[in-house]
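Many introductory courses stop at the sequence. We go one step further.
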Amino acid sequence: MHLEIITPEKKIFEGDVHIATFPGTDGSFQVMNNHAPLVSLLKDGIVVYKTKEETEEVKITGGVVEVLKNKVIVLADGIRY
């Protein structure tokens, strides 16, 4: 599936991933290939995603995620370093 992580300042990541974990407001959840469509609010936490080569983490300060037809878009309020 294709994942994009975007903040108001810049695009943090764009590429294909096997699985992604998000800090939802009601608890963390995972999205895999062919996941049902969804839109969810995200809280301050860590987005973890696995590509073919490695596992990456991005610390976000909240936002929203949309999953539709194997495309996942994260609109993050911001990132923490």
